[in-house]
Amino acid sequence: MNTLTETQLVSMLEMQDGMNKKVNPDWVAANNNWHRAIQVEAVEAIEHHGWKWWKKQNCDMAQLRMELVDIWHFILSTVIQNTRGSIRFAAIEMISELSQKSVQFDNQHYILAKMSLLEKLDLLVGLSAAKRTSLALFNSLLSDCGMSWVELFKQYTGKNVLNIFRQDYGYKAGTYIKIWNGREDNEHLVELLDIIDLSADNVHDELYQTLKSRYMLALDE
Question: What is the Cα–Cα distance from 110 to 119, expressed in whole angstroms?
């Protein structure tokens, strides 16, 4: 079933909080405009979908899915910030939205099941411009793009771990080595994601340590 478990959600919220603290330890108080970031990414998703009625366009679904993963980072950040850093309250708020089947916006009632993917992306842009998010809408977008919560969790976890790993090993200072044994670090990550138990409670730490071991081994060769 395409469902988001509370365990997965709390894990991702904690990961996002940890990543944001890498940039700014007091990031919640900084009150960043995460909605603007969502809006920009949503417009990019529309471009990948294709919207021009005067010319032939093909939907680039792979790129669209990648945009959804990026948008998810900003949704998590938004809710944590709104709950003043409380992971528990953020999870409660998000889980409560999952069962909703519609979105109320600008004096209109949008039934998600009756909307096209492009219409939902338009709605996402509108909501973010009004500094609002909807987990029900995001859930519907995932479904339309053929992406499960398990796959999102996998992709999100991988990107979070790699971003933190890069920072820890000199990415900002320019000392990090991105290519190991003839392959980029994200290629190693994809391989590890296929063998790591994503249901494990310590999946983030396990993935990080496995990535670290492989990196250190490559440096010694």
Answer: 10
For helices 135-144 and 117-129, give the axis angle rounded to 10 degrees. Answer: 150
The DSSP result for 160-203, as a single string, is HHHHHHHHHTTTTTT----EETTEEHHHHHHHHHTTS-TTSTTH
pLDDT tens, 35-79?
999 999 999 999 999 999 999 999 999 899 999 999 999 999 999
- In whole angstroms, give the CA distance from residue 145 to residue 72: 14
Largest CA distance in the chain: 63
Q: Which amino acid is at 210?
A: T
Distance CA 178, CA 183 (A): 8
Element (H, E) at 105: strand 102-105
Q: How many CB atoms lie within 10 A of CB 85?
A: 14
Domains and CATH numbers, the chain: 6-145 (1.10.4010.10), 150-220 (no CATH)
Q: What's the pLDDT tens digit per position in 152-179?
A: 999 999 989 998 998 899 887 899 999 9
